[in-house]
Every structure is written in structure tokens, then in C-alpha cells.
Amino acid sequence: MRVDVISIFPEYFAPLDVSLIGKARERGILDIHLHQLRDHAHDVHRTVDDTPYGGGPGMVMKPDPWGEAIDAVLAADPAAQPRIVVPTPSGVPFTQKLAMEYASEPWLLFTPARYEGIDSRVMAEYGSRMRVDEVGIGDYVLAGGEVAVLVMLEAVGRLLPGVLGNVRSAVDDSFAPGAMENLLEGPVYTKPPEWRGHEVPEILLSGHHGKVARWRRDEALRRTAANRPELLALLDPESLDKHDRRLLSELGLPTRP
């Protein structure tokens, strides 16, 4: 996968050289290119922002530098088109489903903004001829979109074939489609069996795969009920067995027939 990122702080992306993403870059699974937006601002101060039309606080990033920068990236492969991702708190929510969708793309272009965002004509211009997604990573506002790009690249990169040592790791994630869809992952344990007076649940030491699977599902239901109860409403009622329904009833949560 090719990834391009345009930013006024390309140095922000040093973490992409470490851990799983860094190894994926070394192995050629991820081909990441960083671009300085100010290289496309031609006044003496390399200005990339101006006051907003209509008044109001803050500054808006100018369309000219962004247009020139995006055009320069597109010129790298005129026969192809990237999917452009614009981080913004006013965008659609970034989810595991969207991460999986992005992981199937051959080319992504991220355009993290600062200040009050990018002049909306930039999205209109490129959205008329290619896919442009405005995406937010949560219901809060950051100083800039760079950290959101790091979050998305981490989520997307680990889904690419060959990045994770165990392919089951991505399948068993919270929010991953499958048998545990819409449930948070339950607690996990490793050696030693006792630590500072805390013992690993006995069922996990039993070797009984069926009982272990049942325990993990019960704990996933309990954690979801405690931390994200709204997700339980998204469960397919037909995916709930009698044990699930009894547990949810004990937790004081209704289940649909």
C-alpha cells in the first residue's frame, strides 16, 4: 500500500518508523511518503492560512497551497487515484469497519489540517473526481489532524497481510466482524498464574476449549455492558443463545426476542 501525508509538521510522523508500522515500512508492505505543505506556499513567509470569510475566530488553511500539494502527489502516478482522507472532528466516525475498508485500498492520501481546517473548496474540487472522506476519530477537538492520521495508519497498517505475526490477532479484535461482532474484547492473562495475590481465572488453565470460549464470551458481554452498553443494542438477536440472554438479564439489560 502507498500512503502519502501532506502536513506542515511532517516531523510529527517519526513514530511511523518504529514498532509494527516501522517494520512494515522496512519490508515494503507500507510505502509512506511525507510532504511539507509549506513547500507549496510561495510568499516570503510561506503562509498557508488566512482569516475566515464571514468573520469569526481562528484561521483557515488556504486552498492554493493545498491544491498545489495534492496535485504534486497525484502526479506521482497519473494513471491511478488515491483515496483522500481528511481528518476532521466534523467527519464520519473512524471505525474498525472503515479501517478494514482502507486496508483494501492500494493508495491513501491523508491531509491533516491545523487551525479551523482547510478551505472547503479543496474537498469540493477533488471530491468531484475521486473519493474524498472527511473522518473523525472521536467527539473531541485536537490541535491538528496529525495525531488522527497516526491513529488511522496504526489501525489500517496492522490489518495489511504480513504485518501482524499472528493473523488471528486482527480477527479477534474488539469491533472486528465475526462471532464477537459489536462486543468489546474481554480481559486477557499470561504467565505467571499468580501475581501479587491475583490469580488467573481457573477456567483458563483448564484446557477445556469449549468452557474457555464460553467464559470469554461472558466476559465480553460483561465488559461491553459496563463500558459500551449502546453496542449491545447492535447485536443480532439471533446471535444470542439462552446463556447470553440469561447473563444479560442478570446484568439488568433487556434482550430482544
From TrEMBL:
Its main location: cytoplasm. GO terms for cellular component: cytosol. It catalyses: guanosine(37) in tRNA + S-adenosyl-L-methionine = N(1)-methylguanosine(37) in tRNA + S-adenosyl-L-homocysteine + H(+). Transmembrane segments: none annotated. It holds the Pfam family tRNA_m1G_MT. S-adenosyl-L-methionine binds at residues 137-142. It is found in: Cytoplasm. Its EC number is 2.1.1.228. InterPro entries: Alpha/beta_knot_MTases (IPR029028), tRNA_m1G_MeTrfase_C_sf (IPR023148), tRNA_m1G_MeTrfase_TrmD (IPR002649), tRNA_m1G_MTases_N (IPR029026), tRNA_MeTrfase_TRMD/TRM10 (IPR016009). The keyword Cytoplasm applies. The keyword ATP-binding does not apply. Residues 1-232 form the tRNA methyltransferase TRMD/TRM10-type domain. One of its GO terms (biological process) is tRNA N1-guanine methylation. Keywords: Cytoplasm, Methyltransferase, S-adenosyl-L-methionine, Transferase, tRNA processing. GO terms for molecular function: tRNA (guanine(37)-N1)-methyltransferase activity. Belongs to the RNA methyltransferase TrmD family. Specifically methylates guanosine-37 in various tRNAs. PANTHER family: TRNA (GUANINE-N(1)-)-METHYLTRANSFERASE. Homodimer. This is tRNA (guanine-N(1)-)-methyltransferase. It comes from Streptosporangium subroseum.
